[in-house]
Design a protein that fits this description.
The protein is α/β, with parallel strands linked by helices. The protein contains twelve helices and eight strands. β3, α2 and β4 form a beta-alpha-beta unit. The longest helix has 15 residues.
Length: 292
Amino acid sequence: MAAYRFRGESQVLDDKARQGVAGQFIALPDGVVHYELAGPPDDQPVVLIHGFSVPYYIWDPTFPALAAAGFRPLRYDLYGRGFSDRPETEYTLDLFVRQLLNLLQALGLEHPVDVVGLSMGGPIAVSFTDRYPERVRKLVLIDPAGLPFPKPRLSSLISLPWLGERLMDLLFERVMVNSQGNDFVHPERFPDFRAQYLPQTEYIGFRYALLSTLRGDVLRDHTPIFRRVGAQERPILLIWGHLDKTIPMETHRRVLEAMPGAEFHPIDEAGHVPHYERPEVVNPILIEFLRR
């Protein structure tokens, strides 16, 4: 990371920068993590894992609904995103699974939790369940990555040494910032979504974290892991936006092949983040599944 200084990253993410930021912070072995935990200690914990680059505010419609329904929701920023640290390391599945384990341990959440993974949070959730099956009661996947689906050519170019850094610099605003609306069927209904995304991009290490993630193993084909978890006796819920342009809904067939016992709900008039775009549909499905 020190060999390449990305344009637009001028701020250091430290205690001073975090002053006034909502939520809580906790120091874990790999760095400080930004999180929010609600609900009484005796309520069933539900861990919400966000996707590739949009941090925990992507759960804004879900978090309060779970708390109001009698659950104990936990959402957090993955390393490199939001207001969590950007450690100078490789951003791999091991890192993100370890982050979740360390967070649960630090918060004293030792009993089985429900885990909800969105997009890239999908393979993280599934891998965590595979490694620590005794820690997971129920599993929910929303438009998950981790299985083969068509990817843009740019994703292969950005993996190349040095060229990836240049492309991340030159195309970041167009590809990552201005394309935020692509996750929605009706982006005009969410005019502030782009502005919410911008603060995290100013802190040194954000672009490196995204680039390292693209070059690592998180977004590769994890079909064997999905199959192992699918063979376990655990309720699984699969939700997919019918008009998802990021990971086409047709990919759900691969998930169901690996996890034949999963309960599947397609969400009409929704894109890549159906829980955010249509919470009035998704929240009841999610809550009913977790209560069952």
